[in-house]
Amino acid sequence: MRVAVTGGAGFIGSHIVEMLIEQGDDVEVVDNFSTGDPNHVHRQASVVELDVVSKSLEQVFQQFKPEVVIHQAAQVDVPKSLADPLSDGMANVMGTLNVLEAARRSGVRKVVYASSCAVYGEPQSAKISEFHPPEPISLYGASKWLGESYVRLYHRLFQLDYTILRYSNVYGPRQGMKGEGGVVSSFIHNLLAGVPPVIYGDGKQTRDFVYVKDVARANLLAVKWASTQVLNISTGVQTSIETLCDQLISRTDHVLKADYKPARPGDIRHSCLDPFRAEMHLGWEAAYTLAEGLDETIQYARERR
Question: Which domains are assigned to the chain?
Answer without folding.
Answer: 2-170+211-233 (3.40.50.720)
